[in-house]
């Protein structure tokens, strides 16, 4: 049966589906196997009247086996899920910005008694007083917050916040929650 060229896309699709079903029901010859439940005709993307658009395509896994690409994708998804579960099990460490604001605004903490240890790209760890730290990006001496690695007290040299070891004695967040830390310099 020739396709109706005056039909709308929906009508054409419906007619093609009916023809395919009629063909599958009436066909008993082995040369033309029946369309199984796991196979559906590719009719969603019909853009022309060519017969190649009406060939059934299998949507199931071939022979019950997963393709290598899909197996790899599944493996990666499982690994990501496992790593995110491990990360969520770790206590959240407060940011350096939070620590700096607490030192600056908490009257029980003296701003002049705390120093910031930051990573200099050329020298390594450098120390600067919290009161000297510039937060505005317009300054020439501006250091980004992501470079801050430590906060310590000047009076006894005790590190109160360590990004790598996840120590935070200011808010008692992170792994330590108030345990002793040693000076790294």
How do the SSEs run, as a string of H and E?
Answer: HEEHHEEEEE
Q: Which stretches are low in confidence, meaning pLDDT under 50 for 5 or more residues running? A: 43-61, 178-182
Distance between the termini: 86 Å
Largest sheet: 5 strands, antiparallel
Q: Helix count, per DSSP?
A: 3
Share of helical residues: 25-40%
Q: Widest sheet: strand order?
A: 4-3-5-6-7
pLDDT averaged residue by residue: 76
Q: How large a portion of the residues is in β-strands, by DSSP E?
A: 15-25%
| Topology, number of strands | 7
- In one word, what is the shape? elongated
Radius of gyration of CA atoms, rounded to a whole number: 33 Å
Structural classification: alpha+beta
Key words describing this protein structure:
single chain, 185 residues, alpha+beta, five-stranded antiparallel β-sheet, 7 strands
In short:
The chain has 3 helices and 7 strands; from the N terminus they run H-E-E-H-H-E-E-E-E-E.
Detailed description of the structure:
With 185 residues, the protein is an alpha+beta fold. The chain has three helices and seven strands, in the order H-E-E-H-H-E-E-E-E-E. The longest helix has 22 residues, at 68-89. Mean pLDDT is 76; it is low at 43-61 and 178-182. It is elongated. The relative contact order is 0.10. Strands 4-3-5-6-7 form a five-stranded antiparallel β-sheet, covered by helices on one side. A two-stranded antiparallel ribbon has the order 1-2.
Map the helices and strands.
Layout: H1 9-26, E1 39-41, E2 56-58, H2 68-89, H3 96-105, E3 114-120, E4 124-129, E5 148-153, E6 159-162, E7 167-168
Antiparallel strand pairs: 1-2, 3-4, 3-5, 5-6, 6-7
């Amino acid at each position: 049966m020739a396709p109706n060229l005056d039909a709308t896309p929906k009508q054409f699709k419906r007619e093609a589906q009916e023809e395919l079903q009629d063909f599958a029901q009436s066909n008993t010859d082995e040369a033309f196997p029946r369309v199984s439940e796991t196979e559906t005709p590719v009719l969603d993307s019909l853009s022309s009247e060519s017969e190649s658009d009406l060939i059934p395509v299998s949507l199931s896994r071939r022979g019950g086996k997963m393709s290598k690409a899909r197996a790899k994708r599944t493996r990666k998804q499982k690994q990501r899920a496992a790593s995110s579960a491990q990360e969520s099990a770790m206590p959240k460490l407060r940011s350096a910005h939070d620590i700096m604001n607490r030192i600056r605004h908490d009257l029980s903490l003296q701003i002049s008694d705390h120093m910031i240890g930051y990573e200099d790209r050329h020298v390594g760890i450098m120390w600067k007083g919290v009161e000297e730290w510039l937060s505005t990006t317009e300054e020439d001496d501006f250091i980004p917050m992501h470079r801050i690695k430590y906060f310590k007290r000047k009076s006894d040299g005790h590190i109160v916040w360590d990004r790598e070891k996840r120590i935070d004695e200011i808010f008692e967040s992170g792994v330590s929650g108030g345990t002793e830390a040693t000076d790294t310099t």
